[in-house]
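Troubleshooting: if your tokenizer reports a length mismatch, compare your output against this known-good record of 212 residues.
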Amino acid sequence: MKYIGMPMGMWALFGKSFERNLCMDFGLDSETAKTVRKRAKFRYKDIIAGVPEFEKADRFKMNLINCALLCAFVLNMPERPDVGRLTEYYANSMMTSPMKWFCRMSGRNKFTDKDIASLKSTAALRAADRNPYSWNMEFYPYSDGSGYEARFTACGICTLMRELGLYDLVPAMCRLDYTMSEAGGTSNFVREYTLASGGSYCDCGYKKREKI
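Known-good structure output:
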């Protein structure tokens, strides 16, 4: 995957936030945090270069790029974090003001005909059959009309983090699904299983919130 484009844009959007929260969440001094960010940028570019280009219709490219960004920082931290602290760090680093705005805008389109059509197209694409760093998804609308479930049987985050020796930290990324759904304001996120915890799939359920 080329660095120019979305990977470079995501670094510009979140690089400083990841640096800042090294101080806030791990207690690093500013100089150490700055050094980690500089080293992480080189590692990030290296990770991105080793990932094949995503198909144009693949909606999960950003997910993989975010994973590469987090992994690059983890691999350059003075100490390897546990999953609990990394979960908090990742959420704090990602949920910037622009990201919260993005979640609100996405929330407005949740459950629309366009949203449903996009999910069905993604399910039919089965991009992970051709790119191990992508996802395979099945779409299941709830019979009572209360929302839907996106069920994943292949996960690019699992693939990349396993390769980097960080597989035990995958749940730190999974937890952001709840945070983003909450920020969107129109759905409640529900989940029972994840591939990272030994499940045969990851279920991402979105239930409509009652309008007040």
